[in-house]
Write a structure and sequence with these properties.
globular, FAD/NAD(P)-binding domain, 19 strands, binds flavin-adenine dinucleotide, about 400 residues, 3 domains
């Protein structure tokens, strides 16, 4: 059933329309479909997954993949694991090989311990005890605990690498939230074909209909229902869930929910210029690494495929700071960092993507509480990576909370 046929037939109405087929949209769809709701996901792209984006090469590199977005999931992602379990897919998890992150600074790869000032770290456990993250930025919270030199030399670059943006002003309580770990699954895992396979598993669940190539342009109220306008026509829904990046949600809600749109528009977005490269193993001298953390570099991080070793190739994904290097200079930087002859970079083995992540700031909790107050009593749901944190598990938690609320609203 396509949107064209839907818009031509007399007033078909979906129980739930979800905008965006990233992990947030797909996870709310799992619960809704299981509860018997006639659920449609509209995705603008021709690919599902959003930031779960495993590039799968063709041609000579056929069979090799690398991550252009999220790369790691952990046994502390209990909600994600519960959904995978319900989908009968827990046995598909693939353990990540144990390799370490290194720092890349002053033109060389360095071990992390070699960059630490241990004298400053001695009192860290005592400073950490009783210190609260609430209302404090990453710099304000972690800086005094680890000491200013350690923070500058290792921790700030490492945190920036984790969230792909300058970490200093990010709220400390949106980073590294401790969660119980499941002992029956690997501590760090991916899936065959990369994390995008997660999205593909969720998309195959019975009752979930996905329409790709449907860019939603506007949502309006129609009494208690919703009209969703896409590039191909209009569709109706009794309940609506926006699972897009926050800037898109703010735009789409402008007409029907202006106050909500205004509050969401206060959240900034950080862009990341991502470049992935696959190269034959034989041309590299770099020992296996989980990735490189850039200190004072044009990139936040270089994420490696060495966690899922391949017989022939290695893959590296550079997450560049936006607007610092043009495409040619990014290629120079890649060649220099990996110590590769420049001619090893071609359009066949290099892929590009622009990623977006919310740039959360201290005080964000008050904003999301406001957003939740405005949503209360409506059959409009909002989910995504701009609530408690940006990790995959944060998205799934938000989706499951919104599903719980929506169920109560539907009655
Ligand atoms: C480079 C990078 C590395 C990361 N690494 C990790 C990691 O290792 N571990 C981890 O836990 N998390 C990681 N994250 C964070 C995590 O991947 C994301 O926060 C999460 O996947 C976001 O999911 P989402 O569904 O909320 O949004 P998205 O993945 O952005 O999905 C939103 C979807 O909405 C669609 N859409 C947008 N506008 C429209 C429209 N108008 N109409 C229809 N569809 C629309 C988009 O095409 C997209 O498919 C990383 C993120 C990035 C960018």
């Amino acid at each position: 059933m396509t949107l064209d046929t839907l818009s031509a037939s007399p007033a078909p109405i979906w129980d739930l329309i979800i905008i965006g087929a990233g992990v947030s949209g797909l996870s709310i769809a799992q619960d809704a479909a299981r509860a018997g709701l006639h659920t449609l996901i509209l995705e603008q792209d021709c690919r599902i997954g959003g930031c779960l984006h495993s590039h799968r090469f063709t041609g000579e590199l056929d069979g090799f993949w690398l991550e252009l977005g999220a790369h790691s999931a952990f046994n502390s992602y209990g909600n994600l694991l519960a959904l995978l379990e319900s989908a009968g897919a827990l046995n598909r998890l693939q353990r990540r090989a144990k390799v370490s992150f290194r720092l890349y600074a002053d033109g060389a790869v360095r071990s992390i311990p070699s960059q630490l000032y241990f004298s400053e770290l001695l009192l860290a456990p005592f400073r950490w005890l009783g210190s609260s993250k609430i209302g404090r930025s990453v710099a304000d919270y972690f800086g005094p605990i680890v000491g200013p030199r350690n923070y500058r030399a290792v921790f700030e670059p490492a945190f920036s690498a984790v969230i792909c943006q300058p970490a200093g002003e990010f709220p400390a309580d949106s980073l590294f939230n401790p969660r119980p770990r499941r002992k029956d699954v690997p501590r760090g895992f991916t899936l065959p074909g990369g994390l995008q396979t997660l999205a593909e598993i969720f998309a195959q669940q019975p009752g979930v209909t996905i329409e790709c190539g449907q860019a939603v342009q506007e949502v309006r109220r129609a009494g208690h229902d919703f009209i969703v306008r896409t590039n191909n026509g209009e569709v109706l829904a009794r309940s609506l869930c926006l699972a897009t990046p926050v800037a898109v949600a703010a735009c789409l809600l402008q007409t029907g929910f202006p106050a909500l749109a205004e509050r969401l528009a206060e959240i900034s977005t950080a862009e990341v210029e991502t470049v992935g490269i696959a190269v034959p193993k034989s041309v590299l001298q770099l020992p296996p690494v989980a990735g490189l953390i850039g200190r004072n570099q044009a990139f936040y991080s270089v994420v490696s495929r060495d966690v899922v070793p391949d017989e022939r190739y290695r893959g590296f994904t550079f997450h560049f700071r936006p607007g610092v290097l043009d495409a040619a200079d990014q290629w120079d930087c890649i060649a220099q960092t990996l110590n590769l002859p420049h001619e090893m970079l071609t359009t066949a083995n290099v892929v590009n993507k622009t990623n977006q992540l919310p740039a959360l700031r201290v005080g964000h909790g008050e904003r999301t509480r406001d957003v939740d107050r405005m949503l209360a009593g409506t059959r409009l749901a909002l989910t995504g990576n701009y609530f408690t944190g940006v990790a995959i598990e944060d998205c799934v938690i938000r989706s499951r909370q919104e599903w719980g609320r929506l169920q109560r609203e539907i009655g």
